[in-house]
Amino acid sequence: MERTPEPELMEEDEQARAYAEADFEDPHSRFMELLLEHSGGLPDAGLALDLGCGPADITLRFARAFPGWRVHGLDGSPAMLRYGAEAVARAGLGEQVRLVEARLPEQAPPAEGYDFVFSNSLLHHLPDPSILWSALGRWARPGAGVFVMDLLRPTRREAAEALVELYAAGEPELLRHDFFHSLLAAYRLDEVDAQLRQVGLEALELRRVSDRHWIAYGHC
Q: Rounded CA gap, 142 and 8, in Å?
């Protein structure tokens, strides 16, 4: 099945609110489990960057897991960041977490370099996949760890429809619609491998971790 791109940003308030209120406990908990497993043992303190942080759920999970770290969450959607700012305030982590509105590659995060860079489900939104991989190379300090997780495109539309029924049967129609089209916009492992080689990040480990996700991890 050929890839079908989708809009780069989720800018409507209805869409942002749906994502902020959705139950992503299982995939986001799994993201953190895999990050902890493959981060190579992070030090007690550092500066991390979350690329495509959305409403900041994973940003906050990272902050709680690593209380000695400061975290910058970067996203191009003002609507998503409004809900993210509310979540940061509710968590009482405003001193540790900073959310920044910026669109890649034109704009940059507030720091020149980071000790760890991570991203969840950003790649399939981007019009050019090199935007993400180049950002890793640009803002991860030499030797810094990186961890990326994203959706895996099924081989057939029917398989994508089955995944929606399996994992989003009880979700609002807006989320079901977005999940289906995100699956169609996602990349296959061979495509991601080619992307990494093109930008000189072939040293990163790449593997499938579920029926709908892959991860790439290592050090820059």
A: 29
**Residue 11 clears pLDDT 80, i.e. is over it:** no
Calculate helix-pair angle for 173-185, 157-167, nearest 10 degrees. Answer: 140
* CA separation for the pair 192, 178 (Å, rounded): 21
CATH annotation of 13-219: 3.40.50.150
The residue whose two tokens read 């810094």 is: 144
Query: Is residue 117 within 8 Å of residue 51, measured between CB atoms?
Result: yes
Answer left, alpha or beta for residue 32, where phi above 0 means left and psi between -120 and 50 means alpha: alpha
Residue 201: its pLDDT value, please? 94
Would you state the pLDDT for residue 8? 57
Among all chains, which residue has been given the structure tokens 């981060």? 39
Q: Which two tokens stand for residue 178?
A: 């977005």
pLDDT digits (tens, 9 = 90+) for 161-217: 999 999 999 888 988 999 999 999 999 999 999 999 999 999 999 999 999 999 999
CA–CA dist 50, 148 (Å, integer):
10
- Integer-rounded Cα Rg, in Å, for the chain is 16
Domain assignments of the chain as residue spans, ordered by start: 13-219
Contact 139, 49 (CB under 8 A): yes
- Give me the residue label for tokens 């030090």: 43
